[in-house]
């Protein structure tokens, strides 16, 4: 299929507070230290929505707003693909616990925030974008599946598209069944046409090669990659940070028995 | 766009399993809704409950066993769907058929059960399999494994537009060459989360839902599964001619009262199909029977189609099946296309005088060539599908 032109990158995870500081880490110019993320309030959300937005929504926003910083494209002209494995497990627990009580006091705000597309909904309210928005889930392969969805959306419609992948650890009962090592999110802004601000050109293809790209020489980054589905993007982001075409293409697992091969070229 | 052929489709709702009971119920104007209680739900409301979900899923997939995946299994067994996919698998290869499944709540009922079964400070019970039941992807993985497919699979979860958007994603993936054919569908099952959640938002009716009625009080919730096998158009009789997607950018759980998001989705579907608004013979409304939804959708319909295009919500038959509403109403729209039927708005006695669209109060036999089906969800997520029938 036709190539994608990468306009901007956003990231937020332990020790990787934003894309500007992450570049040095992924280039090997600065050591990776898994420091906790500083607190953060989404700047784009109106006060009502800011009050209601959960940690999960904020985590999605964090990488998305970081990507916007690196781009001059207007946020209301971006289509969106949000990808998350578990969206908001804290809400799942709060509602499930409320349902064990006799009066079943389910909070209306919890309920409307419980939809998998809550972050995407807040994002369209925050940016005023009425363009298409999709939210997908593919368990650990959510980033790759989201990238595939974004690629087909761009090919079909030509809209500049924001991809956001995010997950946050749930409360202990659910964290025991679905552990995430830290809150994390990653974001890409992708376009159909090259521009002077293009960072990289990506070509996607399905492959039967199911061997994912890894950080064999850096156990801490490898643990981060495996610790949150949003961080499955790291091998790709590492190539982008280095701006050097790698000897072998990036491979990410897709759901099913498929892999996604990503060839990167730099202008 | 290049039309997408609908090679096979099926649906299972409170009206029964497979297409035939749905055709019969549409013609007989018989609702599947009842005022029975679901599990321990004490709310005075009507539901669209599917019968026949007592048996566990096949042994090989036993970790996936939960109401949502049982409903998926029951749906897959109807209308020779598995056989049709098996034949397609031999034709294209297992790796070249994608799976796109919409769901809103996935297996959250299983999670509710797990919290109920736990006492004191205990961990969740061992029989609780998060990945295979609670996670939104579980039903897409279930369908992929059950059908022996190895291509890419994804769950789309945009609340009540989820399983309309699967058609759009599949069309794009096939056009981009990521797969040669696709199984699309949607599955959503009854649970206390949605019953008490919609009740908390004061959107649940205490009587059977009455879409577009002057006295409408809100939703009746239903459950359903539905699937379609879609392929590049090769002289198919039924085709997806267009789709449109948009966002309201207005509010998390209320539609834009001006209907602008709905209007954008329908406009995009017409444009992509190259079909004029005057050529649409029937619109299957999202029509949830909440005052706000029906009013906003009416504004959008009138702006685009004027007051003459016949339309109705079929939620009086099935209830609002949430993440499955897109595929259920796509399948009902396809049945209507095939049968030449504009179904009435069931349970609607007197149309709200504030609504200007042509709400069908009586079913009508008529030849149909193009129909539209609307699905709108929380988060202001809209999808409109345009289906056509070749003579």
Q: From the structure provided, what is the oligomeric state, counting identical versus distinct chains?
A: heterodimer
Number of helices of chain A: 10
CATH architecture identity of chain B: 3-Layer(aba) Sandwich
Q: What is the name of the CATH superfamily of chain B?
A: Thiolase/Chalcone synthase
Name the average pLDDT of chain A. 96
Mean pLDDT of chain B: 97
Q: Name the poorly predicted regions of chain B.
A: none
- Write out the strand line-up for the largest beta sheet of chain A, numbering strands in chain order: 3-2-4-5-1-6-8-7
| Number of domain units of chain B | 1
Based on CA atoms alone, the radius of gyration of chain B comes out at 19 Å
Number of strands of chain B: 16
Q: How would you characterize the largest beta sheet of chain B?
A: 12 strands, mixed
Based on helices, strands and strand pairing, what is the structural class of chain A?
Answer: alpha+beta
The number of helical segments of chain B is 12
Instruction: Give the SSE string of chain B.
Output: EEHEHHEHHHEHEHEEEHEHEHHEEEEE
CATH architecture annotation name of chain A: 3-Layer(aba) Sandwich
Task: Summarize this entry quickly.
The complex is a heterodimer of chains A (267) and B (391). Chain A has helices spanning 19-27, 47-52, 55-69, 89-98, 108-113, 118-127, 142-157, 172-175, 219-227, 234-242; strands spanning 4-13, 79-83, 133-137, 161-167, 184-191, 200-207, 250-253, 259-265.
Note down, in words, how this protein is organized.
The complex is a heterodimer of chains A (267) and B (391). By secondary structure, chain A is α+β, with helices and mostly antiparallel strands. Chain A has one domain: Peroxisomal Thiolase, Chain A, domain 1 (3-Layer(aba) Sandwich), CATH 3.40.47.10. Chain A has helices at residues 19-27, 47-52, 55-69, 89-98, 108-113, 118-127, 142-157, 172-175, 219-227, 234-242, and strands at 4-13, 79-83, 133-137, 161-167, 184-191, 200-207, 250-253, 259-265. In chain A, helix 3 crosses helix 6 (118-127). Chain A is globular, with a radius of gyration of 18 Å. In chain B, the strands form three sheets. In chain B, strands 1, 2, 4, 5, 6, 8, 9, 10, 11, 13, 15 and 16 form a twelve-stranded mixed sheet that branches. Chain B has a two-stranded parallel ribbon with strand order 3-7. In chain B, strands 12-14 form a two-stranded antiparallel ribbon. The radius of gyration of chain B is 19 Å and the shape is globular. Chain B has helices at 19-28, 67-76, 81-92, 108-117, 130-134, 138-146, 162-175, 192-200, 260-273, 291-305, 315-318, 325-339, and strands at 4-13, 16-17, 47-48, 97-102, 153-156, 181-188, 221-222, 224-232, 238-247, 282-284, 310-312, 341-342, 358-359, 364-365, 370-377, 381-389. In chain B, helix 2 (67-76) packs parallel to helix 6 (138-146) and helix 9 (260-273) packs across helix 10 (291-305). Chain B is 32% helix and 21% strand. Chain B is an alpha/beta fold. Chain B has twelve helices and 16 strands. In chain B, strand 15 and strand 16 (381-389) form a beta hairpin. Chain B starts with a strand and ends with a strand. Chain B has a single domain (4-389), classed as Thiolase/Chalcone synthase (Peroxisomal Thiolase, Chain A, domain 1). The chains are: A alpha+beta (267), B alpha/beta (391). Chains A and B meet through helix 4, helix 5, helix 6, strand 3 and helix 7 of A and helix 4, helix 5, helix 6, strand 5 and helix 7 of B.
């Amino acid at each position: 299929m036709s190539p994608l032109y990468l306009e901007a990158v956003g990231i937020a995870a332990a020790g990787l507070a934003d894309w500007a500081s992450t570049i040095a880490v992924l280039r090997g110019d600065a050591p990776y230290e898994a420091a906790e993320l500083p607190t953060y309030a989404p700047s784009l959300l109106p006060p009502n929505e800011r009050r209601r937005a959960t940690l999960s929504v904020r985590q999605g926003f964090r990488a998305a707003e970081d990507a916007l910083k690196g781009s001059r494209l207007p946020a209301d002209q971006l289509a969106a693909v949000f990808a998350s494995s578990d969206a908001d497990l804290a809400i799942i627990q709060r509602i499930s616990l409320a349902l064990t009580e006799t009066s079943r006091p389910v909070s209306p705000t919890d309920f409307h925030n419980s939809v998998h597309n809550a972050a995407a909904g807040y994002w369209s309210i925050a940016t005023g974008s009425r363009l298409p928005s999709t939210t997908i889930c593919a368990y650990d392969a959510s980033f790759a599946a989201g990238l595939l969805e974004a690629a087909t959306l761009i090919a079909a419609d030509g809209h500049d598209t924001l991809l956001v992948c995010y997950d946050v650890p749930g409360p202990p009962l659910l964290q025991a069944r679905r552990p995430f090592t830290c809150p994390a999110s990653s974001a890409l802004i992708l376009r159909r046409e090259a521009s002077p601000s293009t960072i990289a050109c990506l070509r996607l293809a399905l492959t039967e090669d199911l061997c994912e790209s890894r950080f064999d020489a850096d156990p801490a980054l490898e643990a981060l990659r495996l610790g949150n589905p949003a961080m499955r993007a790291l091998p790709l982001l590492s190539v982008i940070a280095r701006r050097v075409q790698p000897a072998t293409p990036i491979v990410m697992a897709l759901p099913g028995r498929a892999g996604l091969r990503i060839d990167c070229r730099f202008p | 766009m290049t039309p997408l052929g609908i090679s096979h489709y099926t649906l299972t709702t409170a009206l029964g399993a497979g297409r035939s009971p749905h055709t019969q119920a549409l013609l007989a104007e018989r609702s599947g809704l009842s005022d029975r209680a679901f599990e321990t739900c004490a709310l005075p409301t009507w539901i669209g409950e599917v019968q026949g979900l007592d048996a566990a899923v096949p042994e090989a997939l036993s970790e996936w066993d939960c109401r949502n995946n049982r409903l998926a299994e029951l749906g897959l067994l109807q209308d020779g769907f598995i056989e049709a996919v098996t034949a397609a698998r031999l034709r294209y290869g297992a790796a070249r058929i994608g799976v796109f499944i919409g769901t809103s709540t996935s297996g959250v009922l299983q999670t509710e059960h797990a919290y109920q079964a736990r006492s004191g400070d205990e961990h969740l019970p061992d029989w609780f399999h998060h990945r295979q039941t609670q996670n939104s992807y579980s039903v897409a993985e279930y369908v992929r494994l059950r059908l022996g497919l190895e291509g890419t699979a994804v769950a789309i979860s945009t609340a009540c537009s989820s399983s309309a958007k699967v058609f759009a994603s599949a069309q794009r993936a096939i056009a981009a060459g990521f797969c040669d054919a696709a199984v699309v569908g949607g599955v959503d099952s009854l649970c206390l989360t949605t019953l008490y959640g919609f009740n908390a938002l004061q959107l649940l009716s205490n009587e059977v839902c009455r879409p577009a009625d002057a006295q409408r009080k809100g939703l009746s919730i239903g459950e359903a599964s539905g699937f379609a096998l879609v392929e590049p158009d090769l002289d198919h009789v039924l085709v997806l001619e267009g789709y449109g997607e948009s966002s309201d950018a207005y509010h998390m759980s209320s539609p834009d009262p001006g209907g602008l998001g709905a209007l954008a989705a329908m406009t995009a579907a017409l444009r992509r199909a190259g079909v004029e608004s005057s050529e649409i013979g029937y619109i299957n409304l999202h029509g949830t029977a909440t005052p706000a939804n029906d009013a906003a959708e009416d504004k959008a319909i009138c702006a685009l189609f004027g007051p003459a295009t016949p339309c109705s919500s079929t939620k009086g038959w099935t209830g609002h099946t949430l993440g499955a509403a897109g595929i259920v109403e796509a399948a009902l729209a396809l049945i209507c296309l095939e049968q030449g039927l504009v179904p009435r708005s069931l349970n609607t006695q007197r149309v709200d005088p504030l609504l200007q669209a042509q709400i069908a109060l009586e079913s009508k036999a008529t030849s149909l060539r193009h129909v539209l089906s609307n699905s709108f969800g929380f988060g202001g997520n809209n999808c409109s599908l345009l289906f056509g029938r070749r003579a």
